[in-house]
From TrEMBL:
Residues 17-84 form the DUF202 domain. InterPro entries: DUF202 (IPR003807), IM_YidH-like (IPR052053). The keyword Ubl conjugation does not apply. It comes from the Bacteria. Pfam families: DUF202 (PF02656). It is a multi-pass membrane protein. The chain crosses the membrane at residues 26-43, 55-76, 97-117. This is Putative membrane protein. It is found in: Cell membrane. One of its GO terms (cellular component) is plasma membrane. Keywords: Cell membrane, Membrane, Transmembrane, Transmembrane helix.
Amino acid sequence: MVRHEPEVPGDAEPDYRFTLANERTYLAWLRTALSLLAAGVALDQFVPELGAPGYRTAVGAGLGALSVLAAAGGLLRWRRVQRAMRAGAALPTARAGVVLGAGLVVVGLVVSVLLVVGA
């Protein structure tokens, strides 16, 4: 049996296991985005005011913004990895995780300061 290689690397169909693993990673990004959005809404609706008026809403909006970044970053990463696998190229680096992690550090520090100052 002769196996024919595609003439153009971009025509290569990657192993379905890698495609499904990439999809699972994308779904994990979406779950993270949904969790961040739910946390932002819950914070704004159910948590007593943090310090001065408006801080609670600002932190909730920050979580909402991180949610958008997680969803968009996950989608962009999924597409970049799919393209790289089809082209037989090296996988791209994950930049969205760094941004999301830094954003969560900032939100965590702000909430911690507001809780300590408010007590």
